[in-house]
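Summary for the funding panel

The consortium committed to producing paired sequence-structure records for every protein in the target list. Below we show the first two records in order, beginning with the earlier of the two.
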Amino acid sequence: MHMNFRKMMTLWCVLMLVFTTTVACSSQNTKSNGAQQAEQTNGTNVGTNTGTDGSGANDQLTPESGAKLIIWDGNDGTPFLKEIAKEFTEKYNIPVEVQEQGAPEQMQKMKTDGPAGLAADVLVLPHDNLSEAVAGGFVLPNDYFEEETRTEFQETAVNAVTKDGILYGYPRNMETYALFYNKELVTENDLSSWDNIISFSKKFNDPAKKKYGFMMQLNNFYFAYPFISGFNGYIFGNDNTNPDDIGLNNEGSVEGMKYFQAMREILPMEAADATTDVKTGLFQEGKLAINLDGVWNIGNFSSLPFEVGMVPLPKFPNGQQPDTFAGVKAYYVSAYSKYPNAAKLFARYVTSQEALLKNFEMTGFIPARKGMENEPAIKENEMVSGAIQQFEHSIAMPSIFEMQQVWPPIANALELIWKGEDVKTTLDNAVESIKQGIETLKK
């Protein structure tokens, strides 16, 4: 209600300048007439949604005079941004510079470059950075396009980029992980259960020739979480919002980590050696049959000399379907931007249906916008279909501050468990470290 009133008053002022009379009309008519008059007055259609471009929902947002933008994103997102920036500049006459900057570097640079006026106007961050970004005062709320964003994007994505009831992000894509497999080596039956994966791997493995049936990153909790969720373990209570209730050493978590530990039989290597580069290289060479990895690799694995499929993680022997972690990448407008209106327009423009489809075609990023699973390019892609099925069994990574205290102790615990250390004792020690870390946050 507050946002609609603000929008209505802004457009009413535009009408006053044009007609020099007081105009009284409904909120809907104000939007429509204001859009028409702004076109006539400014000579450009700024932020007007004609139905599918998603850049303004029949409303106006006038960019600042002389606006120019800097956009930060990692190397996987910059090729698309450079292309879409040209379109945006042509449409709005706003120069856009795209700079390669990974998410961790963005967060660090915002602390120094932000106050110095050197930071980007638009950032691209995973949702679990949001708490830190808000606490640091780095990002502005997505207020002007809030209604459109909440209506047009997946609820999981919207919730992930919302903090304390305030929407900040402009969702771009959802990420999780599932099982990539080489169709020349593996049948779908081999992937129908974890027991079948283990059985297949025992036959396929030849470590001396660096051939493995199954591989995953072993010391990264992001990928190991299904061995917790699939056995009724949990991180924090109350849907990962209560850091006073830690479930990483409960009975289910211990059982799950014992199953994880037993898989060393089919993956005889140190946890630290199962790196992303090693795993990806083996898969591309046809020496790794089943690769537990992220959906961001769909583009990389689409042009290999063999056909690659993707399926959700199967149920564990206890009959339970494991949840994977889901992440949401989104655009955020910098609180230090000199041109916040132009930045908001850009964030909205690059999350339109057309832009997200183009992004998918260039990068394989799966759009967070509703209904895009019906786009032919997406619907006909088997790997994407498998990823979407996995999204149905995913939860957003906890984004509360206390989650940052979980990663290092659990990564260390995973290495020790993989080496054969007692699971219960190792998890107890990890949870104690997590608690100590959380206590330091309170001081």
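The next record, for a separate protein in the list, is shown here:
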Amino acid sequence: MSTTHDQAMNYVYQQVLQRLLSFFSRAERTALQLLIQRLVVAAGGVERVGTYKVLMTHSGTRNSCYTLAFLRAAQLSIAGRAPATFQLRVATLRLGGTTPTIMENIHRSYGALFVYDDPRVEVVMVDNREVLPFSHLTPMSEAGRDLNRTNMLMLGHLRGTDGVFEACDDCYLATGEFYSQIARWEGGVDALISGKTVRQQKQFLAGLMREAQKACLSTITHPAFSFEGLFSMLDPLGGDCYRELYAGHETVEWRPRESFETRRGADYIDIQDLVTGNMEERWPLLTDFLGLQPDEIDAHLRENDYASPLLSAHLRGLQACFVKGQAYESGFSEYIQRALLMMRKRRLPERLCDQVLEVYGNPHAMAELRTLASAEAQQALGLNEAQQLCLLFTPFVDAGAGLERFLRRCHPGMLVAMPELHKAMQGNAAPEQVMQWMIDVSGLSVSLICKLYGMRSVPVIGLEAGDPGLSAEDEGAFVEGDALGERSARR
């Protein structure tokens, strides 16, 4: 019966492969052969490929789904030619921005590629530092939401009063820790494989360095400039990247504890040269075969895997309004302008830019967009507007250096309580109303606020957090080519 079942499943897998290949162009089929060759060589030959295990992380983006389909095609192609094929571990880290829609898209890609019942594929997710079987129907745990929210607040407050707050910028550190842990779970893996572009790799590694510095981890003396050096960069940070940030506070450990072993050496297999291309041509594969339901505008505007463009633009709007004394609309529009510039640099069709302007460039829709963004901030970050403003002003770090400015701009009625607020942040006795106000306005416990009070902020050096990487020439083009201004002129 087992043999009959195996034969039946092998037939199903080959049918999946044939349908998948029918969506590939000639260039993609050629790239697939190069990927197969790259994997076989990395494994040490076709006779060893059956014991070779590859890790891929799945964030639910179009690129992640496409990369998985490409890897699955390679896995099934090798299986049809050789006695065995490589093992594949696909892991998802659940963060604040991991919406039910993202989980549904991941599930659809798994279902279309028939990975759930294939013993050669592990599909797992991490929630609150616990490795679990992937399930798109299981909501994120409240403990996981609290962990993500607290990490975001602590690291966000440590960026300094002059640093621009980027939604989910803290996720670089969480993802770095995730890479480190999931690579050594259940016997570890031989290689990490990714289709991230050079720019995306540099952006991630820069974000990881920035957040590691905020978290008081050892200075990274030999920073990596590509994922080739990712694990050598992660190893000195240790398995718990938050140990210094929460020293003296109770934290949850990675679980199941007995499943994590000392990581064996893992390589990096870079396939960005094989999977990068015209995403417009891949929509049939993504939608008709994998069943994705992507938001096309969101997908093109999104600068990273963690935060939606609407949420990012909203936070820029709040910062412009409350911190800089400008109009909310100016900060919001500036973010969209920069994103449009990057779309045009990537030579995306002008119709997509027009769609962005239709959604985000209409000044009459700004009030509605702000309402939608506030709701998303509450859902994804767990923060109301008062707590978002507190985070933008960072009033607690550096012994409360920014407290007075924050109170004058947002809570002038609390200026009289400044001495009591400083007492509370120093860990001394203070009126209950004062401590409750601190909790309500920040979203943090008093003990963590006291921790921030005794810490020094870490200024962002070079590019702003999450900056898309504009050069001096880009900046000039940005000023000259005001996309929203062009749209207004057309009207």
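Regarding this second record: Residues 2-289 form one domain. The radius of gyration is 24 Å.
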